[in-house]
Amino acid sequence: MALLVPEENMSNTDAMRQKVHHWIFIAAISFLAIGLSTSKVFISIAELVLGLNWIAEGNYSTKWKRFTGNKPALVLCSFYIMHLLGMLYSTDYSFGIEDIRVKIPLLILPFMFCTTDALNEKERNLVFGLYTGTLTVVSFIGLYRIKHHLFIDIHQIVPYVSSIRLALMMVLSILLLLGYVFSRKWSWLSWVLIIWALWLFVFLFIMESLTGIVMMGILGLLLVVYFAIKEIKRKRIFIGTALLLFIGLMAVGSIGYVIHFYHKYFPEPDKSEYVMTDMYSAKGQPYYTGPAFEGVENGHVVKRYVSPGELSDIWNRRSKMPYDSLDKKGNGIQFTLVRYLTSMNLRKDSTGISKLTATDIKAIENGIPNYNFATASNMQFRLYQAFWEIEDYKQGGNLSGHSITQRIEFWRAAIGIIKKHWLIGVGTGDVKKAFAAQYEAMHTNLSMDFRLRSHNQYLEIGVASGVVGIIWLLFSVIYPGIKTRKLYTYAYFVFWAIFVMSMFSEDTLETQAGATFYAFFNSFFLFLV
Predict the structure, then answer these.
(1) Closest Cα to residue 34, out of 167, 122, 134?
(2) Cα–Cα dist 381/221, whole Å
(3) Torsion, Cα of 297, 298, 303, 309 (10° steps)
């Protein structure tokens, strides 16, 4: 670890011992950086090595003084202590203990990192290089898994970490690579890093990460505006104005495209769509006459003119995937088929299915529910899915499995719990029980498998620790960066912004990977850079 004893007061043996501990520290945090996107076991081993090295190094009195004299570190560690205090009024100790175990990086990493000196540039670059290099290897593994169809849902593109956590890590790597390029004199290495960053950005599209792409867009907008204003202040008015004009056109163009996209694929259904003029198919089979809504495709109502018996019979003749099985995206073939036929304005019977081509059958097997997207890009289809979920939610459709709209139900449940326990929450251990009770009280239509927690870190803390907890979360996130003035540096700001934004759509700190990602980079930028 770093030199905690003045160099002039050390013997050669002590100096060598300190260097050994220092390199063990570097090796451990490098191993941890690799483990963030590959293995929980790597993370655990790295944290164990860090702890053992910290103990073996000694100098406890000096370390304790450094820790107690470091207010940002004290604030960060106190956030973990708040979770321990939440156990005092909890009843479910098994859940609470597991939650405390998962969040322990929030305590040990700030504590250990603040008791060492800052790393030099080569050491920092080594850690960042291994971190970004590992992400690149993981992206190639993802490509391999796509080619060999080794998963059903795109969110399973890599088996080591959730796709959302992976997207956050990729966005951070992209921005750090670009920051390195533009903060130094241009060279051949600049081209290498630009291409490297570009590949990671392309992979966000390959993995269909709407979260990652939106986050890149927002941060890109903020950074370009910042640099444009900076150029104007330097009297480079033309460059600054050009940058602002460029980002303005990009923003207007993006918003315009999204609006056009919505109106193109989600026109208001004609009233005649809800009226059935025939009760039987051409073969004399009765059509389904249940509730009208299970979605709309291209302005046509899905649950009209559906003959399940005829669909099952003809489909099983034309496809090797059984009618009652799942498509390659994990949805029921029968539902994907009905939506696809609806998008073509065909009746969902033997006459309609007979008009499908081999290409259409393949698209349905691949989980494409609308013929317009049989050959479209993944991100176009992801955008379509997002709008479809919203339309389905507005009409009272089942929310289960819908990544965007089921979050609205999660948030409703969390807010309902906070209203009942607004001051200090339900306690660290009783979060899961509180959600289960709230879903029952709400009479939610979410199936049991999808009755999850808030997927919003601010609300999650509010459920466990109330308004007091939310205030302390905000303080622990904002104060350290301002106190150390690291919030005004590029690297820490982009990390901080990624984390703050991620907490709106994810409970980032509720998994080992998420808690470690935050604790590691937050402590790294605050205390080691």
Answers:
(1) 134
(2) 24
(3) -80
Would you state the pLDDT for residue 1? 44
Name residues whose C-beta falls within 8 Å of residue 216's C-beta, 6 or more positions apart in sequence.
171, 174, 201, 204
| The two structure tokens encoding residue 484 | 């150390």
Rounded distance between C-alpha atoms, residue 477 and residue 72, angstroms: 10
Q: What is the DSSP string of 331-354?
A: SBHHHHHHHHHHHTT--BSHHHHT
Q: For 425-482, what is each residue's pLDDT tens digit?
A: 999 999 999 999 999 999 888 888 888 899 999 999 999 999 999 999 999 999 999 9
The CA distance from 43 to 32, in Å, is: 5
Strands (E), 21-84: none
The count of C-alpha atoms lying within 13 angstroms of the C-alpha of 515, restricted to the half-sphere facing its C-beta, is 24
Is residue 306 helix, strand or coil? strand
Question: Which residues lie closer than 8 Å to 95 by C-beta, 6 or more apart?
Answer: 429, 430, 431, 432, 433
Q: What is the pLDDT of residue 56?
A: 93
Question: DSSP 3-state assignment of 40?
Answer: helix
Total residue count of the chain as it appears in this document: 529
Tens-place pLDDT, residues 339-379: 899 989 898 888 999 999 999 999 898 888 888 887 766 77
Q: How far apart are CA 143 and CA 384, in angstroms?
A: 23
Model pLDDT, residue 289 = 66
Q: Are residues 158 and 166 in contact, defined by beta-carbon separation less than 8 angstroms?
A: yes
Residue ranges of the alpha helices (H) in 288-404? 308-318, 333-343, 350-353, 358-365, 378-394
Q: Is 21 exposed, middle or buried (0-12, 13-18, 19+ CB in 10 A)?
A: buried
How many CA atoms are closer than 13 Å to the CA of 270, on its beta-carbon side?
A: 6
DSSP, collapsed to helix, strand or coil, labels residue 495 as helix
481 contacts 496 by C-beta, under 8 angstroms: yes
Interatomic CA distance for residues 446 and 401, integer angstroms = 9
Token pair recorded at residue 289:
């006459």
What's the CA gap between 416 and 107, in Å, rounded?
30
